[in-house]
Amino acid sequence: MAQAVEEWYKQMPIITRSYLTAAIVTTVGCSLEIISPYHLYLNPTLVVKHYEFWRLITNFFYFRKMDLDFLFHMFFLARYCKLLEENSFRGRTADFFYMLLFGATVLTIIVLVGVMIPFVSESFAKIFFLSNSLTFMMVYVWSKQNPFIHMSFLGLFTFTAAYLPWVLLGFSVLVGTSAWVDLLGMIAGHAYYFLEDVYPRMTGRRPLKTPSFIKALFTDETVVVTWPANVRFAPPPAEDDHQD
């Protein structure tokens, strides 16, 4: 069993494995009181006035207490992050990393602006960690890129992947959790989907082109084509064959 888990972990693509590891280590560390969540959460005042810039990153690694909700989000993180990296972004690790960076930036800006807007500022002020929202963004992007895949929710009903974010949003409302977290993920996911897939088809321009310095951090995967041993290729025709 342990060997199977180890093999499954090693077979994960680099970004998925790194994010999943950081999320589990951070959440477990907080549960064991090795790390304090108060040093991780997003606090605009501490970021701007006390230069605690690490909070812009660490708030995406903590998934609250270790309970059923934590396992639920770890499953979605491992599944849909892996599906995106291995399929839609296969051989484009830098582009996938840039997608996550874009999503994290959009989510952070929404919260920072939201706390300054009357009537909704109180709701945004209660959002201290954006890890769940970033996970939901990945689910949204995957559903947009694979809209016709048939899925089942707890064996109760079937639907296509295009409706997956809405099904999960409805489930969150039913169990009494805040819908804001899921809605933020959907907004960030739709922003990426529009700018990366829809807008380029409309205008021929791609505004989310991955910067060269991010591409330099990752080496592109080399696609190797192997032929079966029994395949033989015909030799090129001799020069005499082309002469009359």
Sequence-ordered SSE layout with sheet pairings:
Elements: H1 2-10, H2 14-31, H3 44-49, H4 55-58, H5 68-88, H6 93-114, H7 121-125, H8 131-145, E1 150-153, E2 157-160, H9 164-174, H10 179-203, H11 212-215
Antiparallel strand pairs: 1-2
Features:
globular, mainly alpha, membrane, 2 strands, 244 residues, Derlin, Rhomboid-like fold, two-stranded antiparallel sheet, 11 helices
Task: Explain the overall architecture.
- It contains eleven helices and two strands, in the order H-H-H-H-H-H-H-H-E-E-H-H-H.
- It is globular and about 45 Å long.
- The model is unreliable at 222-227 (pLDDT under 50).
- Helix 5 crosses helix 8, helix 6 packs across helix 8 and helix 6 (93-114) packs across helix 10.
- The protein starts with a helix and ends in a 29-residue tail after the last helix.
- With 244 residues, it is mainly α.
- It has one domain (1-218): Rhomboid-like fold (Up-down Bundle), CATH 1.20.1540.10.
CATH architect. name:
Up-down Bundle
Largest sheet properties: 2 strands, antiparallel
CATH topology value: Rhomboid-like fold
Number of strands: 2
What number of structural domains do the residues give?
A: 1
Q: Which sequence of SSEs, written as H and E, runs from N to C?
A: HHHHHHHHEEHHH
Uncertain segments are 222-227
CATH superfamily: Rhomboid-like
Strand order of the largest sheet: 1-2
Question: How far apart are the first and last residues' alpha carbons, in Å?
Answer: 70 Å
Mean pLDDT reading = 84
The geometry reads as globular
CATH class categorisation: Mainly Alpha
Helix fraction by DSSP (H/I, runs of at least 4): 55-70%
Structural class: mainly alpha
